[in-house]
Amino acid sequence: MRHLLGLGLLMALVVPANAVDLEKYLPDDTQAVVSLNWQQVLNSALAERYFGRDIEKAVKSKDLQRFTQLFDLDPLKDIYRLTVAVPANVQQRQGSILITGSFDPEKIEKGVKLFANNVKVHKAGTTPVYETKGNDGNPVFLAVLDTELAVLSTDFRYIDETIAKVAGRRKTKINAELAKMVAAQNPKQSMWLVSVVSDNFKQLANKNPQGQKAAAVLGKLEVLTGQILVEKDIKVALQARLSDAAAAKQAVDALNAGKLILTFAVSANEDLKQVAPMILELVNSIKISQKAASVGVDLVISQKLIDKVMEQANKNRP
Q1: What domains does the chain contain, in order, with CATH numbers?
Q2: Residue range 30-40, pLDDT digits in tens
Q3: CA pair distance 110, 107, nearest whole angstrom
């Protein structure tokens, strides 16, 4: 999935985002969805303050310049949103990336052939599907579905399924609760996550002999959601719904205990003496709450703390 994300970031240069009902096009076996609002992150005060030069340098790289010239695109304006669909069986390392935007399929068709070596062209109905190799040598498939949507996956079946849904030949059968959560997410967030916890995930947790207490809590986990907003500071909000209030109380107790252990470990470690105040400030800013069977974890990484971290990082650079 890692190399698929990398290719997704590259191919996102050809697909700016627009309002698309993503839940209609997700694979039926989707259990988790992560969506990155790249344009919002790129234009945030934090990115402009600390990463503007690095971004500009990356944009001027020869490979990226060649790529963007082929498609006549501005990478600082045309990267918008990547939405990653993760299947229930995470061990399969499959899934798909929906890339939303506005682009010219004919230009993409010509550009892909010129930019990538050894590209195979398949057909799913009348839609061209491009096959190339990922960093691990496995096939990666890309299809430009219309002027607003493209899909990337390591499994041709996911491409074919999405094409059929866009064409109206197939309706989505994803988990109904997951679909509602996806539709309810705020598109202005920098990143959001929604997940209906699968039995497969719970089984993996139960196999961990060193985490029996954690497994007991994870076994009662039903839904996870999260949002990240990057501006001058970084706001993180995570929510978990468990099967009952008692399980939620266990989770809160475990999280609070984790904070105490981390505080002690950082304070007692001489090797972390220089950065300990920053780590402790971050840990102390974590707020853990409970409402019935739901647990919330909220965190604000302030601009002041970010400044300290970046100053320390610059000092440590060779």
Answers
A1: 2-166 (3.40.1000), 197-316 (no CATH)
A2: 999 999 998 89
A3: 5
